[in-house]
Amino acid sequence: MGTMLRVFLLLLSLLSITAPAFSLYEDQVGLADWHQKYIGKVKDAVFHTQKTGRKRVVVSTEENVIASLDLRHGEIFWRHVLGPNDAIDGIDIAMGKYVITLSSEGSILRAWNLPDGQMVWEAFLQGPHSSKSSLLVPASLKVDKDNVILAFGKGCLHAVSGIHGEILWKKDLEAESFEIQHMIQTSGSDLIHLVGFVGSSQFDSYTIDAKSGELLKHDSAAIPGGYSGQASLVSSSTLVVMDSAGSTVTTISFQDGKVTFSQTPVSTLIEDFVGKAKLLALKLEGVFAVKTGTHTTFVRVTVEGKLEVVDKINHATAVSDVLEISENRQAFAFVHRRSNGIDLTVKLGADWNHDLLKESIKMDQERGSVQKVYINNYIRTDRSHGFRALIVMEDHSLLLVQQGAVVWSREDALASVIDVKTSELPVEKKGVSVAKVEESLFEWLQGHVLKLKGTLMLASPDDMAAIQSLRLKASGKSKMTRDHNGFRKLLIVLTKAGKVFALHTGDGRIVWSRLLNSLRQSETCENPTGLNLFPWHVPHHHALDENPSALVVSRCGPSDDALGLLSFVDTYTGKELSSSSLDHSVVQVIPLPFMDSTEQRLHLLIDASGQAHLYPKTSDALGVFRPELTNVYWYSVEAETGIIKGYALKEKASDDYSFDTRGIWSIVFPSESEKIIKTSTRKLNEVVHTQAKVVADQDAMFKYISKNLLFVATVAPKASGDIGSSTPEESWLIVYLIDTITGRILHRMTHHGAQGPVEAVVSENWVIYHYFNLRAHKYEMSVIEIYDQSRADNKDVWKLILGKHNLTSPVSSYSRPEIMTRSQSYFFTHSVKSIAVTSTAKGITSKQLLIGTVGDQVLALDKRFLDPRRSVNPTQAEKEEGIIPLTDSLPIIPQSYITHALKVEGLRGIETVPAKLESTTLIFAYGVDLFFTRFAPSRTYDSLTEDFSYALLLLTIVALVAAIFITWILSEKKELRDKWR
Amino acid sequence: MASIARWRPALLILLLQFFLLVRSPVLAISPGSVDGYTINGRIKIPVAKGFGAPVKISNVKVILNGGQNVTFLRPDGYFSFHNVPAGTHLIEVSATGYFFSPVRVDVSARFPGKVQAALTENRRGLTELVLEPLREEYYYEIREPFSIMSLVKSPMGLMIGFMLVVVFLMPKLMENMDPEEMKRAQEEMRNQGIPSLSNFLQPAAAAATARSG
């Protein structure tokens, strides 16, 4: 009997360990994870509505995405994310079936099949020097029954066959630095005109035969007054340019081989004109548009070359390209914003006094100014023209407007996430019980019977759908309150557009979004860019009725010395509480572990001159901070000069809230042999459960745990380029572990024949980094673990008894303990875009690495695979400890891709947030797409999974009870029989 | 051809032959302009026989040197990288549902057009740049179809099984027991003051002792 029981127990234990750490059944997709697809800010759009069938618009974006969108709903039909260096310069539709893209500064021309996005051909255009690029798809130009696509790039004009992508002819314009402005096809002829500028003062015009590529004519002339880079084509032989001062308009006429200029000061066109005028890109016959301040003026060029003002609009306006609605009738649209919406006006080019369409569209939220408009027409049932407009707003959102209403909108700012933080949801209020019984017992049982059917694979597809919806309903995952497990949170996301979003972790919906006023373009701040998000005010248990807030740090330009901006956002409502522009720059933000009496977190902002500024600027905060002044240290990394410096604060302050700093240490890397390519530190909020690590044979090792550990990777300057640009002999990778308080180099290691790019992650007492091994021509991942030797003696029992141990000595950042490092390298198959590590609430759960691969998937890899103590033949004791026998490469198990069959296109970062439940961590991966999932690195050992079948449990109990009664009755009978016998 | 045979991985020639055979405009490497070469290759994906939907060829990306260049496949599976400098490069293929080994490609400057390619995963040399997946990848666990065994193997099933064994097998065992020994055992039990339930459930009593022992 005893053996039977043992077998039973063994079976039970076996069952619990056979499944891999992360695994998902196909029907569980979407239960704990969500995936959202975006495209980014639209750069250019082309409509395709002529044919019957699906109406679509093809767009190219700033995130190097080309996508085909459904005009009815705004969904993505197909999408391609091009490489990071492959910016799209032009798109068009050729022959009604191909989408043509010109990218990489005019060197790659691709054709994509319009219905399904399959690439049809690719042509590589070469030229002597880089230049502006331009794409022209002539409607009716044929060479040997083949449509010709003209692409200008790298100083050459190429004619490419539309069917095969072969280069038909190539014309080198031979003029250095010829900047193309326009490529014009004169209607009805095979002549192509190229107009552009050389430098800032010379105008050039080329006439080329499109069939043969023969240069027929070349005119050039110096422009009086210079050229600002803005030009507008008003007819096939007239170009209007703005001079470099922005005060004079020059009309260039280049007909019949003669180039004539006529200059008109802007002030004669526009009264009370001051400042700089700008030309808007408008391709309307005979009309150009000038933007001065907030006004837009439309000016007509008469046949004689005279200029006359046609219209003036007192708003910032976006103007669309011209749309040919019927023969010789051109329409164009302009859009400007009102207080709570936008005005769309469509006009006929020839007739200014008559509006084809004038609509006011209400918008329910702030989207900033209108940036771009694209119009398209359709024939209404009464044969009149209707118009739809695709509008790109300042917050990078894309709207389709038709019949006075927004048909659909896309929040494409989410394709450019800069920083992510989480915020807790409000606590459930008393009286509003969310956990109330929403269904009767019968329904509950029915649901569980369904689930049971599902687990027993007896369910029909209908049942499966019912189960799925039940699961979603039962989990209550999209509620707006906190849950016990801490799965429901708000993801606060800062985007490049200056818009902040709050996404619900349950289903990924946008709870609120706010275009920050401080992050919008203004006179004082030309080019604001967001830098970071920080939790500013996180209310504690006694102040839970207050809303938490977040701090958005940004600066006015891309350079380090641009002035900083601060903005405070309520994370429940999205309201911008306050904002301030700073009188200093922001290079680094140090969140301090202190709070003032109102529970605002203290932050130290370091400016470009090395001054530290304390925020919030209250005497209260200063009072908290002053005693801790001597304990604040930080470091700076100057990658260009190869210097890492450590700083401390000086006691004496120049002004109440700003402090002088002094350098305390510096590490200079020899610039001829080392170049810093990567630095990495531990996450500030990481929790470590224990310092001791029990190894085999009841031995213990003490982890060296320091928050001030900095990982630095340097490579040989020759090997700092891409793979393939250097040989193994001339490349090396050196990694350092530096203590940022004392500047002590804890460890240094050289990998010969290795090069970047390096991706690294630091956690607890270890660093894992990924680099390229040129000798093996494979990627490698190395691990370094650091142990504190000064505490190693504490294992001696006698010392403990006699009190000669140093366990009670405080852990100090100033101490210089003896350390021991262990490291090991393993091959890894893929290129890596980003590495993160799981983080849990108490740090007890074992860790898994999250590797964002080049295929835009996220792979979970157990840290145990990257244990430096792995050996070929682990001893029995080591095996019990969980050491895996050594292999030369890391395994890639398809089931451990946490993104399963999805891709996070353009993956840039992976953020992990601990849930309240110790076993679980929340993972948010962002790029062009967003992906969120819940992940248990050592499986959910502390809660039942959602799949747990209560019905089966009930059934078993019932069966057991029944069995007891049956046996009881049987035994009674037997006893009776025995007695009778 | 003798001289060609001495060129160990004479890929160019092989592909030239290939070119002549199928009249396809593809060479593995062709000298381009002054500053670069062109790498041409092909990706062959077998018709999906296993799980999931067949991969769409339009969603396959080919990546040079970890993201320096990204290109897509033409309908016939061909791809090319232009303007690649001489050196040793790495090509990776990203196709959902398939595992491709990265490929090491040597572009020689001294012998224009000479190229060597090898899979980095298993160090297998390639005579022509035709990449095939090493294996299919299925990202989900496969639900076991319903079987009695899976039910029996579940903890609940084991419990029920145990019960059944006790109910139906134990009496048989008891019958084979020597009646005197049985009596002695029962006697012992009574003396030990086993809970009264064991009096009713005499067949189960043996099991109870086994559990306590």
From TrEMBL, chain A:
UniProt signal peptide: 1-23
SMART domains from the UniProt entry: PQQ
This protein's record includes keyword Methyltransferase: no
A family per Pfam: EMC1_C
Keyword 4Fe-4S in annotation: no
Transmembrane segment boundaries: 948-971
Compartments where located: Endoplasmic reticulum membrane
Membrane topology term: Single-pass type I membrane protein
Any one GO biological process: protein folding in endoplasmic reticulum
Domain EMC1 first beta-propeller: 24-412
Keywords in alphabetical order: Endoplasmic reticulum, Glycoprotein, Membrane, Signal, Transmembrane, Transmembrane helix
Top-rank lineage group of the source organism: Eukaryota
GO cellular component, one term: EMC complex
Limits of the ER membrane protein complex subunit 1 C-terminal domain: 763-980
Family designation: Belongs to the EMC1 family.
Quaternary structure and partners: Component of the ER membrane protein complex (EMC).
Descriptive protein name: ER membrane protein complex subunit 1
UniProt organism field: Linum trigynum
From TrEMBL, chain B:
Range of residues in the leader sequence: 1-28
Entry superkingdom: Eukaryota
Pfam families referenced in this protein's UniProt entry, alphabetically: EMC7_beta-sandw (PF09430)
Membrane topology: Single-pass membrane protein
GO molecular function, one term: carbohydrate binding
Segments traversing the membrane: 156-174
Record keywords, A-Z: Membrane, Signal, Transmembrane, Transmembrane helix
Key word GTP-binding present: no
Principal subcellular localisation of the protein: membrane
Residue stretches making up the ER membrane protein complex subunit 7 beta-sandwich domain: 56-159
GO cellular component, one term: EMC complex
Subcellular location as annotated: Membrane
Protein family according to the UniProt entry: Belongs to the EMC7 family.
Protein name: ER membrane protein complex subunit 7 beta-sandwich domain-containing protein
Origin species: Linum trigynum
